[in-house]
Design goal:
The complex is a heterotetramer, with two copies of chain A and two copies of chain C. Chain A is α/β, with parallel strands linked by helices. Chain A folds into two domains: about 110 residues, Rossmann fold; about 160 residues, Rossmann fold, CATH 3.40.50. Chain A contains nine helices and 14 strands. In chain A, strand 8 and strand 9 form a beta hairpin. The longest helix of chain A is centred in the C-terminal third of the chain and has 17 residues. The radius of gyration of chain A is 19 Å and the shape is globular. Chain C is an alpha+beta fold. Chain C folds into three domains: about 70 residues, ATP-grasp fold, A domain (Dna Ligase, domain 1, 2-Layer Sandwich), CATH 3.30.1490.20; about 120 residues, 2-Layer Sandwich (D-amino Acid Aminotransferase, Chain A, domain 1), CATH 3.30.470.20; about 140 residues, Succinyl-CoA synthetase domains (Rossmann fold, 3-Layer(aba) Sandwich). Chain C is about 35% helix and about 25% strand. In chain C, strands 7, 8, 9, 10, 11 and 12 form a six-stranded antiparallel beta sheet that branches. Chain C has a five-stranded mixed beta sheet with strand order 13-15-14-16-17, with helices on both faces. In chain C, strands 1-6-2-3 form a four-stranded antiparallel beta sheet, with helices on one face. In chain C, helix 3 crosses helix 4, helix 8 packs across helix 9 and helix 9 runs parallel beside helix 10. Chain C is elongated. The chains are: A alpha/beta, C alpha+beta. Chains B and D meet through helix 4 and helix 5 of B and helix 7 of D.
Chain lengths: ~290, ~290, ~375, ~375
Amino acid sequence: MILINKDTKVIVQGATGKMGSAHTKRMIAYGTKVVGGVTPGKGGTKIEGIPVFDTVKEAFQATGATTSVIFVPPFLALDAGSEALDAGAELIVLITEGIPPQDAAKLVAQVKAKGAKLIGPNCPGVITPGECLIGILPGSIFKSGPVGMVSRSGTLTYEIALALTESGLGQSTCVGVGGDPIKGMGYEEALSLFKDDAKTEVIVLIGEIGGTAEEEAAAYIKANVKKPVVAYIAGQTAPPGKRMGHAGAIISGGKGTAQSKIEAFEKAGIKVAKTPSEVAKFVAEATKQVARA
Amino acid sequence: MILINKDTKVIVQGATGKMGSAHTKRMIAYGTKVVGGVTPGKGGTKIEGIPVFDTVKEAFQATGATTSVIFVPPFLALDAGSEALDAGAELIVLITEGIPPQDAAKLVAQVKAKGAKLIGPNCPGVITPGECLIGILPGSIFKSGPVGMVSRSGTLTYEIALALTESGLGQSTCVGVGGDPIKGMGYEEALSLFKDDAKTEVIVLIGEIGGTAEEEAAAYIKANVKKPVVAYIAGQTAPPGKRMGHAGAIISGGKGTAQSKIEAFEKAGIKVAKTPSEVAKFVAEATKQVARA
Amino acid sequence: MNLYEWEAKKIFQEHGIPVPPSHRITKPEELRKVHLGYPLTLKVQVQSGGRGKAGGIQFAQDLKDGETKAKDLLKMVINGSKTESLLVEPRLKIAREIYLSVTLDRSRGCAIFIASAEGGIEIESSTNVVTMPIPYPYHDYVGRDLAKQIGLTGNLLNKFADLANKLYKLFESKDLELAEINPLIVTDGDEVLALDGKITICDDALGRHKCFAGWQETHMLDLSEREKRSKRAGLNLVELDGNIGILCNGAGLTMATMDLVKAFGGQPGNFLDAGGGSDTEKTLEALEIVHDNPKCDVILVNILGGITACDEVAQALVAFMKRHPERKLVVRLRGNNQDVAEKMLAESGLKLYPELEAAVKQAVEQSKVPAGAKR
Amino acid sequence: MNLYEWEAKKIFQEHGIPVPPSHRITKPEELRKVHLGYPLTLKVQVQSGGRGKAGGIQFAQDLKDGETKAKDLLKMVINGSKTESLLVEPRLKIAREIYLSVTLDRSRGCAIFIASAEGGIEIESSTNVVTMPIPYPYHDYVGRDLAKQIGLTGNLLNKFADLANKLYKLFESKDLELAEINPLIVTDGDEVLALDGKITICDDALGRHKCFAGWQETHMLDLSEREKRSKRAGLNLVELDGNIGILCNGAGLTMATMDLVKAFGGQPGNFLDAGGGSDTEKTLEALEIVHDNPKCDVILVNILGGITACDEVAQALVAFMKRHPERKLVVRLRGNNQDVAEKMLAESGLKLYPELEAAVKQAVEQSKVPAGAKR
């Protein structure tokens, strides 16, 4: 497993908002060690049985947490992320959708300067099944096992996780890096963690049209990752020049097509599945190979 | 000697301006390895026989220098300093006077983040007599020897250096840190270099009214510096509430008096001279003690 | 949101970036009020590239020539984009053309300058192009480094650097996705001017820029009615040529569903991502938008509820089926409150498919049955 | 440059920091036009602290009471500062007072917040004070951290944080040295207001803030004519009580020269730092300013030329002696072009002292000789 485990303590920024409180409840129900919420002006109160603080600094100091998950509105996200970072956060999971990309870029610059980790924005979060869930992923469809997953998509990740789980293939950790063009963790950073993770035997990479992150990941895998990788690319039938839901999912100037990504993977010797169920099939085959090796 | 020596390569930002060109000439005449000037739009020309570049990046790349001395007008100094820093400068000597202190603070923040060194703003510069002069100090009054000097004042430093030189006491390196309240290198940073410098036997610290830098230096010396230190404080007769020339030279709210600084030094066992000639006398005594030890 | 050239230039000017003198006209006869001297340049204002190649830029020798050309130009449609107006400028003597833009770079995760010593080009297919990451916080030396990198010298270096710095400050202060000057020209009198300009404002940031309030409605000229409706409802719709309308939650899942439809021999009629956490009302509006597309014979709904509650979706489906009992509907619904949803829909007689691939196969089959036959 | 309270409050308001309603009056009878209701607070506008203790704040029960008090207040001089006008505000019911300021911290080399849950205090002598370094670039959470640190909670935490963020942005955007709200009050209606405000603008930055153009001339009310003259000439003058006028180049050297004068039994009459690189004209103006001080019997000039050229100084001295042959002058001159200077001055009959201490001793001796005896 990577990034989070059963000992990970989390605070929730925006814990008393509609979305924040709903998912605080779910995370706690899943077993995540949610140790505090942060809502300025509501310090001293409680939500779902956990204490609410006015500032991240205070929350970190009182709880010993160094991980924060953020549910604040888009225009407040840069400030919330900076607050967590300057308070000493080592991992920030930024769920909020619709953050202006220049704000995201400013946050990313600070994260890099401090050597911290940022997942998101506009992401479902991260789960180490059976140990810790941070974000909005539906915990029930995941189970513990040897498959590491990294994905730019939310519900598509659930679809594929479901296919794996129903095929008896559990997951080590599943990272939803988010669908925005400017974001913290990308494929390479997640892959660099999975490749050295003892529990992860096979890696599933879920991509989509837009940008060149998949092509770069293919090159990274070829050069650095010995473990088998199975890829899936959404948007093979997407027309050029149109934004397909995600801010980052657009074929522009002939760049970012599914075809280019699939070719890059195949060239790097990575199997590309055509359907979610085929992902499960390829992973099952890879797992058997690993077992034989 | 500290900071600079005969191998130090320097570029001059603002080399083609009135002050920049005059001091480029003087530095070269002193023997400083001035390897380039920077004036945007004048790249490709020459000044005092050295090449002029459009950008610091280019000048550093072409010459291998990592030290820059800045003579640009006050409102351009933050940009010039940032340019040098981002181009990889390890030492920046910022001569310009009248820089808005918030600009200085922004530059200092960047210098700290990058782990570089900044001397100034509003400073005379630094000299390792006989080897390298960076800034506007009159080289002829310094001579090589065992005395390390650090000072907030320009001409007063010359006065005391003159007294030392005329008493046969040469200097290892002399650092004019400048009279502004917000600046890069302070006493502590200079002292931390002098204390480990083999050539420096005695340290002269020249202070003045305003702030608490001398008090902090006294505490630092007591805790860290084994070498003898002689101090001099200007402004014993300055009235409270008035800025005495330097932006930083003001007694306000009862703080920053010469008396408080002198007491701090004496408490730390540091000799405080009452006149420039007394500095030379105390240094001579200290040198003899060092020789006996 | 893409701005028209005339809007971009107005904003450039407000931020100290020099542009040629100009007039905007919407009728040929307005040319009579333009006193810029001849020859004039007439440029159609459209939200599409390739204007020059399509003949959207013409030169007029005199008023009569201008009026004739303006009449034709105002009727132009380029790549489906209608001409909104004409921008009229004096024809300038150009000594040199340069390319300059600021945008965001995905791989680096930061803003970048793109520049080239050759302007008026298609930057994507050009070779002599410099890209430079922009540091945060910004410093003016960056403009000089850029000027140097594309080989400028002397006065032009400083003028270009100043302009690049202003363009970046505009980009940052107004939350742009793209600020492009192509070409930036040097006139024979050594003036540096933005001859053409393109600005894309980030839609997500519009809420904090009062100066653009209401602009979104006036910049949807090229969208279909259904696309406009979706935008207003916060739905992501892209219409396609097939006959299977697709409604999912989540962009990746919607694309994957489209791909499956195609893989199983069907033709996707649209991409509609209802987003996370859609309630009954939003889902119903989404259904209505897909329903309104006359090309769609079947609607395939694929909801994998993480945040989305299945019972909310089921309620929307029940209401939709009451309104449009004839509409062929294939629904895959899974996740939160799935049991409640199943019960509700069983009562309405709608079969649910828990497996995605089974649902897609069914939708493709249905799409090949002649219209009129009910689910 | 220190602003008056009324100016500071106007700027606060422009930056979204709430202040009480107010009127500024310069004559007692203007109070008739003030319709803020009684009781009123009348506050003298002076550039000096200790206004409250000196009786510069009075409450008026009605118009008659107000006019009587205004008449007295307008004549007030506090610590040598003249009253510029009165600021009239309704007397507010205060539930709580807080202290808040932004300034620069020398030791840390950055901007800091200073705040205290008790306002209306002398912050330098107070105990319950929080200082907090301000990060660059700035983020709004800093205001919340500060609010928390001084113990605020609930709504007040957010209101104070918002105000602190606005105060910092004002501080940064206008290049202030100090922005202080003391006290920041919470009224009995839970409103948060700046009841008193102090702004110091950095003189070095004035050139890039057009909004303050010309303000420096109108804010020198408390300077002597000679101090104003020095400011305009770019010289640093501080007048003292003794009879030896001191003119040097460099602040440290000037102070050291003062100290030596005192140590050798003389009384410094002023501090005049002519700065680095002064030419003939500037040096002459400096000499004239010292000469104009009737208290000064002797002028001691101490120039150690690094940048300053000795011959330029010598030229000024020659011209000065021609104008004022009776003036006692002791000159120590050393550095660049010293030989030329020596020659010039030898011709004028002025003895030069190469050693500082010898020159000081000579000046002190001269200062004890009854006036009228020439050098």
